[in-house]
Amino acid sequence: MSEVKTEATRDAYGKTLVELGKENPKIVVLDADLAASTKTADFRKAFPERFFDMGVAEQDMIGTAAGLAASGKIVFASTFAVFGSGRAWDQIRISAAYTRLNVKIVVTHGGITTGEDGASHQANEDIAIMRAIPNLTVIVPADAYETAKVIRAAAKFNGPMYIRLSRIKSPLVYKDESFAYQIGKGITLRQGKDVTIIACGIMVAKALEAAEELSKQKINCRVVDLHTIKPLDKELIVRCAKETGAIVTVEEHSILGGLGGAVAEVIVENCPVPMARVGIKDMFGESGKPEELLVKYGLTAKDIAAAVGSVLKRKK
Amino acid sequence: MPSKEKVLELKNIAQKLRQHIIEMICQAASGHPGGSLSAADIVAVLYFHQLKHNPKDPKWVDRDRFVMSKGHAAPVLYAALAESGYFPLKYLTTLRQIGSSLQGHIDMLSLPGIEMSTGSLGQGLSAANGMALAGRLDNKDYQVYCLLGDGECQEGQVWEAAMTSAHYKLDKITAIIDHNKYQIDGSVEKIKNLKPFGDKWKSFGWNVISCDGHDVKAVCEALEEGKNYKGKPSVIIADTIKGKGVVFMEEKPLDYHGKAPTETEKEVALKALCQIILDKDENK
Ligand SMILES: Cc1ncc(C[n+]2csc(CCOP(=O)(O)OP(=O)(O)O)c2C)c(N)n1
């Protein structure tokens, strides 16, 4: 097997932010004492006058971001996913989303692959609580290339966003940045007619791996990178359900309320087909190496293949 | 400093705002009279004396900003905006009705002249800081005013924001506390004491100013002092009375935090508020 190239989505964020900073003087960056980890430190170094560290005060950070945005700035505000979603939820709701302001909340350390820091630092519920907020666009890019595209799109997009990135180096799904990217439009990465695997974030690579394995058993999986959880690409989901007759969702997040929940809502109302959700069961994580945790919490290509098997059985 | 005539005018405007507050809340049959009335003099001074603003151009880039952090006192802000000419007075009576632009708590997208949506207490000062930081980045000279409740200061975010203003030396920030000493469940002192209140702000790195929040001349002076103070943000702790101007509310502030007066009570309240204040009444 050829060597798989990897890169952390947060690294791509840091680099892209510096490029954007050069192009657009309106861009301002905030962080809550995690600049080295979230990679906003790159921007701090390049544009110290447009970087504000808000200290360990996530609620204040979101409110300050809203005030800057209300005065014409395009604000990127970063911290870990747990704190950037849960700790400041009400501030995101009222100061950023109700107001439709240009606040881009870009969080890193999403999901269980945050690893050794353990449950307190593993955001497994953030997609669910963020997508419940009206006006808020929610995106989970699949790899570093897509992250660069998303961050560029975010700077042009008018309105509040929540963008979830990862800590770990993860496989590159795309070969470069030359593909077409549009907020709200899922990307079909592999054609297939037996089942559609809909994934987001670092699980897209695992979905492709599972599809490859299953092809050896003559099971033809379609694989979709559904990077935008909100607004959801309903049309694509319904089309996949109709054409392949079964759906498996895969996310590094609780099976409650995240990508799986969002897709299930669409399927149930529009085109009920057998469906399975691969994700973290309704439980907290623990310390461990990211790869060990993915195995223990059922987030491997093998788990995806098993879920595909289960929906195919129900399909007949 | 304001002339004698200006002071008299501001007093009468404050009374006018109070009339609107009572009429609006009665029409809506719900709302927050106590904390709207206590802030009436402060808001009158801001909109009719202190703020650099243009109701014909609400988004004017050089305007001063006013963030009403205690979003439940929306009626006093709506009354001031309408009296300033941001929108016709006739809309005031649509407060809290379905389809109205006058939402129960402040919504910046539904009316011109509103800088920030509020209603969840504790959030306004952070937004004000953001506006002040943007002003500094853009080399603007505008001042950012933020009105908070005293009960609201029990929110942790207020103190996060207070640290931010001081850390970044945002002397373009003037926070004003409507210090009416009551919240919903009781007196602020009894529910969760803020004393020593001024010392708290001082220790957070603020320039602290105190004034009688119903003496419009004193409010003018305090705002001017805050604006001119350099190197630190200023906070004005404005001593106020919850329900000010309506005797039966002043006597029972806890009964009128979030309750509309009855029809009969309205008549009594308006009778007192419709008295024009003359020169000879200067000393109250
Ligand atoms: C975060 C939040 N918690 C609770 C409330 C409900 N609430 C509305 S007004 C109020 C009391 C506020 O007291 P104070 O700030 O002193 O206001 P004032 O007396 O000036 O009206 C409360 C608890 C709210 N609006 N926001």
Automatic annotation (TrEMBL), chain A:
UniProt keyword list: Isoprene biosynthesis, Magnesium, Metal-binding, Thiamine biosynthesis, Thiamine pyrophosphate, Transferase
Single GO term (MF): transferase activity
SUPFAM superfamilies listed in its UniProt record: Thiamin diphosphate-binding fold (THDP-binding) (SSF52518), TK C-terminal domain-like (SSF52922)
Cofactor: thiamine diphosphate
Keyword Metal-binding assigned: yes
Any one of the GO BP annotations: isoprenoid biosynthetic process
Domain spans labelled Transketolase-like pyrimidine-binding: 7-172
Gene3D superfamilies cross-referenced by the UniProt entry: 3.40.50.920, 3.40.50.970
One Pfam family hit: Transket_pyr
Superkingdom of this protein's organism: Bacteria
PANTHER family for this protein: PYRUVATE DEHYDROGENASE E1 COMPONENT (PTHR43825), TRANSKETOLASE-LIKE PYRIMIDINE-BINDING DOMAIN-CONTAINING PROTEIN (PTHR43825:SF1)
Protein family membership: Belongs to the transketolase family.
Name this polypeptide is given: Transketolase
Organism, as annotated: candidate division WOR-1 bacterium RIFOXYC2_FULL_41_25
Lineage, top ranks: Bacteria, Bacillati, Saganbacteria
UniProtKB/TrEMBL annotation, chain B:
Taxonomic superkingdom: Bacteria
Pfam assignment, any one: Transketolase_N
CDD domains: TPP_TK
Keyword Acetylation listed: no
Keyword Transferase carried by entry: yes
Matches recorded under SUPFAM superfamilies: Thiamin diphosphate-binding fold (THDP-binding)
Keywords: Metal-binding, Thiamine pyrophosphate, Transferase
GO molecular function: metal ion binding; transferase activity
Residues annotated as domain Transketolase N-terminal: 12-265
Required cofactor names: thiamine diphosphate
Signal peptide positions (record): none
Family, as annotated: Belongs to the transketolase family.
The protein's name: Transketolase
UniProt lineage: Bacteria, Bacillati, Saganbacteria
